[in-house]
Amino acid sequence: MSEKKRYDRFTNGKLNEYVDWLDEDGRIINASDGGIIYVDGVYYWYGMVLRPLPVAFHGQGGQTTTVGVAMYSSRDLYNWKYEKVILRSSDDPDSELYAPMRFERPKIIYNEKTGKYVLWCHFVKNPGDHGTTPGTAEAGVAVCDTVCGDYEWLGHTRPIDDDGLVRDSTLYKDKDGTAYFIYDRDVNDNRCLHIVKLSEDYLSFTKEYRRIEAAYRREAASVLYHGGYYFMFTSGLTGWKTNPAKYFRAQGLMGEWVDMGDPCEGDVTGTTFESQSTCFLPVEGRQDCFILMAERHNTENFERCSYIWLPVEFPTPDTMRVAYRESWSMEEVWGSR
Questions:
Q1: Rounded distance, CA 298 to CA 304, Å?
Q2: Which of 46-60, 155-169, 290-304 has the lowest mean pLDDT?
């Protein structure tokens, strides 16, 4: 058996380049627009398994899945082991998970009170086309007793009311254990980011929510907390075409959010470095160290999308910025911090 390849840095490549990120067996990591959760000394990276097809105008392209959500594991963030598919699509035409479909932008958080891992996603039923009818613009939820087990699908719903279509979404778990579903709410193409508080078991929505007026027609939200402020990184609404990022700042999740402009330093093309944000990753054991996880979507072959990971900087306590690096290591950027 050949020796497994080992990595000691992140490689994003040039701005117009797609770089394959490989697992320890040399296979392409296929975990689109997912996230990472840290459990008992191990990072678990998960995302939707995309297909090696170009995007089609009316669905069934590479942006859908016929597999589900896959999981990888790592102890150092550089080297990843493929674990399994944790949430499967179905080949049964009578199942609401009948493939091709989408578990788009899945995110997992742990509930200490129930001992359950809870996954929320933007759910789109077969054939995986965004729409307005039931099943085509939903918030879907699944649950599991272990982080890398077989997640049980509990179904889908819409926060606030049935009129608000669900587009891009994410989760955020606050310091006190309260969890929030953050999504691009679409009502007759009047689209704006909303934050909705989840129930104590994280399995449903409460009636407590906030429309983020400053984040009108924004999507792909990612949230972190640093130095007394919440920062939210977002993308504009241009489909698969990249656009300038914009971030917002607040002192409370349900408080007033302020437009802080584009955080991407040196992004002369106005494309968020030819990528779109996925989530923020707090690095375990490194104080105030965060990685912006983004994705360079390859619409000619979605299986070969490129992951773009960049260190987050805080020039002042109330500002944030991100600069592009073709290749970097945590040791180079943060030292032993």
A1: 6
A2: 46-60
CA distances from 316 to 38, 221, 260, 319, 320 (A): 28, 22, 13, 5, 7
Look up residue 162 and give its amino acid.
D
* 39 pLDDT higher than 50: yes
**153 to 70, 75, 99, 121, 313: CA distances (angstroms):** 15, 28, 15, 11, 38
Calculate what percentage of the chain has a pLDDT beyond 70.
99
Calculate the CA dihedral of residues 192, 59, 273, 190 and round it to 10 degrees: -10
| Cα separations in angstroms, 79 against 45, 66, 75, 325 | 11, 26, 8, 19
pTM of the full predicted structure? 0.97
Contact 85, 68 (CB under 8 A): yes
From residue 140, how far is each of 102, 125, 157, 202, 242 by CA, in Å? Answer: 10, 10, 7, 12, 26
Which position has the token pair 């699908």? 153
As a whole number, mean pLDDT of residues 104-109 equals 98
Q: Is the pLDDT of residue 275 over 70?
A: yes
Residue 95 in tokens = 């199942």
Backbone angles phi, psi at 302, to 5 degrees: -65, -25
Report the C-alpha dihedral over residues 47, 327, 266, 305, rounded to 10 degrees: -30
Q: Comparing C-alpha atoms, which of 195, 197, 238 is closest to residue 218?
A: 238
Q: How far is CA 41 from CA 48, 118, 290, in A?
A: 24, 19, 17
pLDDT, tens only, 231-246: 999 999 999 999 999 9
